[in-house]
Design a protein that fits this description.
mainly beta, Beta-galactosidase, Chain A, domain 5, 9-stranded antiparallel beta sheet, 6-stranded antiparallel beta sheet, 1 helix, 23 strands, globular
């Protein structure tokens, strides 16, 4: 396990997918990430690139060609290079290759930069267009946080706290994995969402209109929790595997396909564009307490 560490926290990684696999707070003595139990969901914190969510029929079209791409893209399936590694910062890099070009016809450099300061972990996604044409892409996070955090506590004691009062519906996911067009009301003049396991029985809660730029996991029994800040990420997914002891808070720059998606990459809802030679960056932070 690769690590970065200071006097307050230790964060562990694997180069496979540039995935965070441990966030340990030395003061609280708590691990904040899910343990990737394969009986439920064998992931810790996948990186989503170059798409977020699923594609209609599992394929997309670009410049007259069709490409198959798995849900959430290929970054999580690839080994990243460690470009730099210090006590408080590690940078993973994925370059376009013969393998990626078969799935995604663009030349790129994708960096995932992790930095710690006090009890905060910052994660920056940096996309560089190395091609001569416009780059179309999405990027996002999928960290799974342990709930309950404390041994012997109960899932139902926990809740999500938004940093703004929200009036926001969710966009349901159909049985074929595609996002529906019409929202369903969920948050009504509130900044609190109680956590229950049935909340996720119909898949992820997808938000397109949140005002908040931070979401905290808190509980009614003790002071332990975390706050994830995601300014610059316009979409949010909140998810847990059925009856598993975690919740994912997923800031996204991009969305999965809808029932009426054309299949053309450039028409995809939420798709980002990057001109030749340009660089895109987005950062999310998590503070564990």
């Amino acid at each position: 396990m690769l690590t970065i560490e200071n006097e307050l926290i230790r964060v562990g990684f694997t180069a496979q997918g540039a995935e965070i696999i441990k966030i340990y707070n030395k003061e609280t003595g708590l691990d904040y990430l899910w343990n990737a139990d394969p009986a439920y969901w064998p992931k810790f914190s996948p990186v989503l690139f170059p798409v977020v969510g699923g594609l209609k029929g599992g394929v997309y079209a670009f410049e007259g060609n069709s490409y198959a791409l798995n849900r959430h893209g290929f970054a999580r399936e690839n080994m990243f290079e460690v470009e730099s590694h210090t006590n408080d910062c590690i940078t993973f890099v994925l370059h376009a290759s013969t393998k990626t070009l078969q799935l995604y016809p663009f030349l790129f450099k994708f960096s995932v930069i992790h930095t710690i300061s006090n009890n905060q972990l910052s994660v920056t996604y940096k996309v560089e267009n190395k091609d001569s044409k416009v780059l179309y892409f999405s990027v996002g996070a999928h960290p799974a946080f342990k709930v309950p955090l404390v041994e012997g506590d109960d899932y139902s004691n926990y809740y999500l706290s938004f940093n703004e009062i929200e009036n926001a519906g969710i966009y349901p996911i159909a049985s074929d994995g595609l996002i529906q067009h019409t929202s369903v009301g969920l948050l009504n003049d509130t900044d609190v969402l109680p956590l229950t396991k049935p909340l996720f029985y119909k898949d992820a809660l997808i938000f397109k209109e949140l005002k908040s730029t931070a979401i905290s996991i808190l509980n009614h029994k003790n002071k332990h929790g975390l706050t994830l800040s995601f300014k610059g990420f316009p979409y949010m997914g909140i998810w847990a595997f059925k009856d598993a002891d975690f919740v994912c808070i997923e800031p996204w720059c991009g969305l999965g396909d809808t029932e009426t998606s054309t299949g053309l990459l450039q028409d995809k809802e939420g798709i980002l564009t990057l001109n030749s030679g340009n660089i895109f960056e987005a950062t999310w932070d998590v503070v564990c307490f």
